[in-house]
Amino acid sequence: MTLQGSLLIGQQAVTGSEAEIYAINPATGEALAPNYRGGNHVEVDKACQLAEAAFDHYRETSLETRARFLETIAEEIEAVGEALTERGVAETGLPQARLEGERGRTCGQLRLFASVVRAGEWLDLRHDPAMPERQPLPRTDLRQRHIALGPVAVFGASNFPLAFSVAGGDTASALAAGCPVVVKGHSAHPGTSELVGRAIQRAVAKCDLPDGVFSLLFGSGNEIGQALVANPHIKAVGFTGSRRGGTALMATAHARPDPIPVYAEMSSINPVFLLPEALKARGDKIAEGFVGSLNMGAGQFCTNPGLVIGIKSAELDAFVTAAGEAVKGSAAQTMLTPGIHDAYQNGVSTLASKSNVKEIARGQTGDSPHGCQPGLFVASASDFLTDEDLQSEVFGATALVIECRDSDEMQRIAEHLEGQLTATLQMDDGDLESARQLLPTLERKAGRILANGWPTGVEVCHAMVHGGPYPATSDSRTTSVGSAAIYRFLRPVCYQNLPAGLLPEALQDNNPFNVSRLVDGKREG
Ligand code: NAP
């Protein structure tokens, strides 16, 4: 289909009236048609009012209707075919295979949430039957279920143009929970966003759902992003991006007369601990795996391993040499946007200019105007403990190795870390005791702890946690990847002594949804 450069408000395509945004092919620097005129508070109000109008109907759709809707979105996205991946490649500089993989993940996520909706466990049904004879006081009939929070604002992420953008994890989990969604499309890939947005529009129409279940807005974050989060109809926010953007949105959400939750995934350097026995046994292999993970997607993953911690030794020196050689041989890959490339260059220059940091290796420069030249640097643990700049995320394929005097100093580094999405242990059997000592600290610091793997490549499944304490995310109690993400957009409601005729269907005595319930404290079904 031909891209129109429109905002999508319910079933309408609308031309904005504010400054134009347009995508730039980061591989060539060429501007890509069409231009998208940005929206303003008028379009934000319209989309949010429609979402509010759709809410009560949408949240009470049957589990089957909602599951079919999610599956229909996946089918409509697949039906767009090559046009989607081609536009994605042009707007992001990512390879075709990556876009194809991401489309698979996006549709897989939608289908996963469809299965979660059908299973109904997220309703978390509870019933404490009345005990009229209880002494000294009787108990009345009490029932609980989870309901959707309300319309959700989703900010598309720059680094996942499909899997964390218009129909990505935040949208899929919010729609699964029963929340209408208003997306603020990322300005770097508006064409990809429009194609996906129109696929969702078609799914809404096919499933005969109210128009306001989905809208897609383009424009500046300061204009429509802020207006969306401040809009009284919006009841929660999903965001992936910079720490600055995420904290600005948290401030807006908390300053509202009715503050709302912001689930922002922001900044993480994903420490990797090289334990001594593993380093002795297979330092070269670890170096190879590490540089492979560092370079994946030009390092533009929130789970990129940006910090490596080891104990000063001949084995650590050999690891640094081997990793440095691999970095030197690494090709430059095009970064997502000129802005992200500039931020990367600045971050690397700042690191390289510090007197307490030693440059080990830089990769190749390449021809792309926005190529990411990989980098590897080393600093001492004592400097890391006193210089907060060394914990700053450099978004791209650059990492810092920290040399510790001994295991006590390694433990102090772990304690000193900010909140992280992941923490990785490279360990052998002989490292078990050291790992055991680090574990309680890592549990406090990170959402996911790995042994002998690499943090990039996040499985979308039921047990995944893609979250962690600030600044990794704004709320460490949840995950933004995997089926548990649905709980971000739900809240419990208790029904006390309601007559059967007033109770929601899910809570009727005969358990019409046939899902497991907690009855008088005992699990049934
Ligand atoms: P970003 O600048 O935070 O922007 C993300 C989205 O939020 C955009 O739609 C942007 O709108 C909007 N936004 C930003 N600041 C806002 C504000 N103050 N109020 C309202 N909306 C706001 O992130 P990005 O463009 O994806 O990349 C920039 C940097 O973010 C990267 O260099 C990297 O450091 C970091 N990043 C981190 C991760 C991660 O997972 N850790 C992922 C992606 C990016 P506009 O359209 O106006 O820009």
From TrEMBL:
Cross-referenced InterPro entries: Ald_DH/histidinol_DH, Ald_DH_C, Ald_DH_N, Aldehyde_DH_dom, Aldehyde_DH_Superfamily, ALDH_KGSADH
Pfam families: Aldedh
Keyword terms, alphabetized: Oxidoreductase
EC number: 1.2.1.26
Stretches assigned to the Aldehyde dehydrogenase domain: 17-467
Enzyme class: oxidoreductase
Keyword Transferase: no
GO molecular function per UniProt: 2,5-dioxovalerate dehydrogenase (NADP+) activity
Gene3D superfamilies: Aldehyde Dehydrogenase, Chain A, domain 1, Aldehyde Dehydrogenase, Chain A, domain 2
Reaction catalyzed: 2,5-dioxopentanoate + NADP(+) + H2O = 2-oxoglutarate + NADPH + 2 H(+); 2,5-dioxopentanoate + NAD(+) + H2O = 2-oxoglutarate + NADH + 2 H(+)
Family assignment from sequence similarity: Belongs to the aldehyde dehydrogenase family.
Name of the protein: 2,5-dioxovalerate dehydrogenase
Source organism: Halovibrio variabilis
